[in-house]
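Schema walk-through. Below, the input block comes first and the output block second. Nothing else is stored per chain. Lengths vary across the set, and this one has 176 residues.
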Amino acid sequence: REYLDRWWEMFGYDMSIFLPDTFSTDFFIKNLTEDDLRRSKGARHDSGNVFRFIDKWVAAYRNAGINPMEKAVLPSDGLDVPMMIAIDDYARDKINVSANGWGTNATNDVWRNEWTSDGYWEGPISQVVKPVRVNGRGTVKLSDNPPKATGAPEDIRRYMEAVGYDPKTEAVECVY
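--- output ---
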């Protein structure tokens, strides 16, 4: 709670796109208030099944009495042109979509995606950097896609239990 209030005080509406998958989108939405939902622009999809993500946000806005067409989702996980078209088709008349998160495949599409004969991967480079320790403590990102979770296994397990992370969460192929 305090984190969202401080974020709002510091950045206001212009920077009010949620990035909800640190401890899972389900946990994030469960802890939002109607006011949080009203004052935000929308949410960025960073992992997991993008179509389920859209459905979760549409439901959250509708449950709060908010027209989802006044909000947006910004997919950013492993996008390419065919996926962006599929997302746009799926979200049409449900919620606004922006492909501003098109990253690795937009900036690194000159690479082949294959192993070379000498055993090196020749493909896009993931440009994500995440801290692994802060003040001597391990950091964790659970993600909406279990294979993308980061942190020590014991920390991941502890945080999954603390936030009620669904152990049956669908794994999605990691695309970089």
